[in-house]
Amino acid sequence: MWSREPVKDSSLPPPAMGRFGLSLNRFRKLRAVLSFGSAEPEDFDNDPWCFVRGLVDEFNEHMQQKVHPGWLLGVDESMSA
């Protein structure tokens, strides 16, 4: 999944993460601590995000604590904040 250049002739080429500064070593460290899956089939029927629900919830909580937008904020800026 990590490469310096996109893979040619692929329907879904991987992002060229090495090209933009994410080293292979850092990629391996990040991948080692992230895990997805092991959800029960009935969980997936009720919640399509069940594989990454914990990650999404933690990210949203962190963003609420750390991001304090100003009073003048455009819609496009709020999408990336």
What report would you give on this structure?
This protein has 4 helices and no strands. It is mainly alpha-helical. Helices cover 44% and strands 0% of the residues. The mean pLDDT is 74. The longest helix is centred in the C-terminal third of the chain and has 14 residues, at 53-66. It has helices at 24-33, 41-46, 53-66, 75-80. It holds the Pfam family DDE_Tnp_1_7. This is PiggyBac transposable element-derived protein domain-containing protein. Residues 22-79 form the PiggyBac transposable element-derived protein domain. It comes from Prymnesium parvum.
Give the uncertain stretches in residue-range form.
none
**Structural class by helix and strand composition:** mainly alpha
- How many strands appear in the DSSP assignment? 0
Biggest sheet, open or closed, and with what strands and sense? none
What is the average per-residue confidence, as pLDDT, rounded to a whole number?
74
InterPro entries: PGBD (IPR029526)
Domain PiggyBac transposable element-derived protein: 22-79
Protein name: PiggyBac transposable element-derived protein domain-containing protein
